[in-house]
Amino acid sequence: MSTAQPSEPIHVKSQEHLEELVAEHDVVLVDFYADWCGPCKMLEPTVAEIADETDAAVLKVDIDQLQDLARDAGVRSVPTLQFYADGEPAKRLIGVQDKDELLAVIADLS
Question: 23 — phi, psi (to 5°)?
């Protein structure tokens, strides 16, 4: 496991990249988003703060660039926030979430 946690969101480039990052970090928040999605834009500053202020690794997946990955992950609407703990899917939230809710999930998984 990696001890250095990224302080800003990491843009996922492929399924393999996602799998590596999930395996590398204890707690991971994956933000499935689209550039055309208004709620995604609303959520973006919150997600950036989570990356900066917590030990969770925050990953961004553009569902238009990585359609197969999003489909395989069962993402049907954006934003979808998928949490992983110790490499396993742990919790999924759909839609804009407030920062306190996201912090509570991360605290529960840590």
Answer: -70, -30
